[in-house]
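Supplementary Methods, section 5.1.

A reviewer requested that the exact input to the structure prediction be made available. We therefore reproduce it here, unchanged from the version used in the analyses.
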Amino acid sequence: MTSDPALMSVRTDVVLEVLVGSLAEAVQQRLGTPLPAAAEAALARAGDEEAVRAARAGWHARMVELDRFERAREPVDEQLGGPDACLALAGREPLERPQPGDPDAVTWRVPGPGGHVRHYLAAHAVGDGSVELKRAWVFGFLLACAPLCDDEGHCITCADEAVPMKVLAVDEARGLGLCEDAAGERCTVELSLVDAAPGDEVLVHAGTAIA
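The structure derived from this sequence is encoded token-by-token as follows.
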């Protein structure tokens, strides 16, 4: 009971249950939504049909987070350069409820509601399936965080078109580059996801070179 009569005491487990239930329902409503072909191809890397289904739930869970939580829209510091990186990170995610300080718990390092909420969301999606399917869920979740593009230069997460730009100069210490588009417009671009040198052409989405 709180000492301030103006405040109401609540049980953390009840709040968590209500939050996870609400998010899981929103994910369920999205599961039939068609995804871009490149996203479908990436999700297929999760494994068998059951694993792909879990990965799809993870993808949509991230989309729900982006809709509901302002903090989830903050930049992701993790190096998510493609499906291989996402698979590697997901493969290290603890199968039990992760602790915030666990270096293997990538679900705690992505801005948003945190690793505990994501753990229970994954468990809800997996249901009676193998506990190992949690990592397939995390793989799909991370794919939805990663700035990936298809063969036509569109971001598979939001379908926006990536812009071809030429790298003019590179600040290796900060991982930034001065880039120029076809119209001669210049801007600073985050280069941490690519290996680029002056003269190279990169595809830029949301201020980040993704290919």
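The mean pLDDT is 83. These observations are discussed further in the main text.
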